[in-house]
Amino acid sequence: MRTIEEHRKTIAELVAGALATRRVVVRRVSEGVSGEVLADDVVAPLDLPPFANSQMDGYAVVASDLEGGAARLAVGRRIPAGHVPAPLTPGTAAPIMTGAALPDGADAVVQIERADPPRFQDEGGASTVSLPGPVPVGQFVRAVGSDVRRGDTLLRAGTVLRGPHYGILASSGVESVRVLDAPVVLLVSTGSELAAEPGPLGGAAIHDANGASLRVALEEADARVIVRRVADDGDALLRLARLGVEADSADLVVTTGGVSEGAYEVVRETFAPRGVEFGSVAMQPGGPQGWGVLDLGGRSVPVVAFPGNPVSALISFEMFLREPLQRAAGRPVQDRDRVAILSEGADSPPGKHQIRRGRLDPAGRVVFVGGPGSHLLHSYALATHLVHLPVGISRVEAGDEVVVWPLDD
Ligand SMILES: Nc1nc2c(c(=O)[nH]1)N[C@H]1C(S)=C(S)[C@@H](COP(=O)(O)OP(=O)(O)OC[C@H]3O[C@@H](n4cnc5c(N)ncnc54)[C@H](O)[C@@H]3O)O[C@H]1N2
Ligand code: MOO
User: Fold this and answer.
1) Which residues form a coiled coil (predicted)?
2) Burial 334-347 (b: 16+ CB within 10 A, else e)
3) Which of 226, 185, 164 is nearest to 322 (CA)?
4) Å from CA of 125 to ligand 2 middle
5) How much is the ipTM here?
6) Mean pLDDT, 10 residues at a time, the chain of 409 residues
7) How many helices, marked H, and strands, marked E, lie in the chain?
8) If you take atom 2 of ligand 2, which residue's CA is the nearest one?
9) Eight-state DSSP code of residue 134
10) Are 366 and 387 in contact (CB under 8 A)?
11) Residue 309: nearest ligand to its CA?
């Protein structure tokens, strides 16, 4: 039986290999999406600020006019933001607004509230103002290039783009960037019991839970997902897989069901002769697993085959696929382990790493939600944490420390 660590490594290598070379797409900055990953370094095309400007509403001055202390200066023409000002004549102070271009000749700004009078005067009115001094050269002046220098690296390849990144790209006049394209995952639910359509169930049919739950989980890990369903029909499964790779450029095939010991294990029977391995991982739920590379339409595409039980499929994703996909997407991968205290005891198969569903009570202690059965999807939906009971443990008691993974991180 494989250990969880062995299987994690296998799947991580499989995914990393398949997604090592990622397609890139051009994204308009005005249509940027939070979380996309920059494919190339972006060089700053402009100095920012592009011109020296005022950090305050006040008066643009020549600092040397105030070096002897407070002085009364002639009031020059107002400088609103967005206007190119006339040069400043020494001995004058020009009313200037925050963000307005500093006139040639000016080298400092005095805030309006430090002036006498402390309010802008009507243009054409009183023609002098008293300003305190001395003031340092550069006071309240935002120098050219003080944020970004033209030619510097504005953003590095691999940056996960969020609001500030799109802001600085837009400020720099960059209209579009190249970002990593999402990997495409073909997700196939298998089993003749799966109803073809939503709606009333007939006979021994059930609705497909895994296509719904894993699509969302894969999308959380930045994949683009094509969801398909197939009965226990190996030829149909192969056709679907080939089509997904050829027509939809799938980078990875994920299946659920058909991997264990039954008489109709469509995934195992179809893929094992083509080189995909099947075996058992010492964990519950999620014991039976398949993994390997399929030659599909001349391309080698990795296959990850999860068990069909809905809880097993989801926990397999959490244990084996979420992190490699996040890594491949350039996303930081956080350690999910938290330590919590149990509020109640439980048994666990000592030869397996059992993963139970739980939530925290008002005192912050772990309460199990539902039993260990891998069909108990409702309990999973009501849980907030996965609770780890590692190999070697046959019993835990109230008060014991356990590692939990929050499900809503
Ligand atoms: N004799 C043995 N039987 C089983 C073993 C074993 O070792 N020996 N392992 C059990 C374990 S553990 C698991 S997990 C399952 C894995 O089975 P498969 O991956 O082959 O999956 P299926 O048999 O197709 O389905 C199992 C179960 O899940 C339901 N299912 C499947 N797909 C979906 C879906 N998309 N949505 C909702 N429910 C689904 C299916 O109806 C079955 O009830 O095998 C055990 N058996
Ligand atoms: O290992 Mo299966 O996944 O328990 O139910």
Assistant:
1) none
2) eebeeebebbeebe
3) 185
4) 85
5) 0.97
6) 97 91 91 91 98 98 97 96 96 97 98 96 82 97 97 95 97 96 94 87 91 96 94 95 89 96 91 96 97 91 97 98 89 91 97 98 96 96 97 97 92
7) 8, 25
8) 285
9) -
10) yes
11) 1
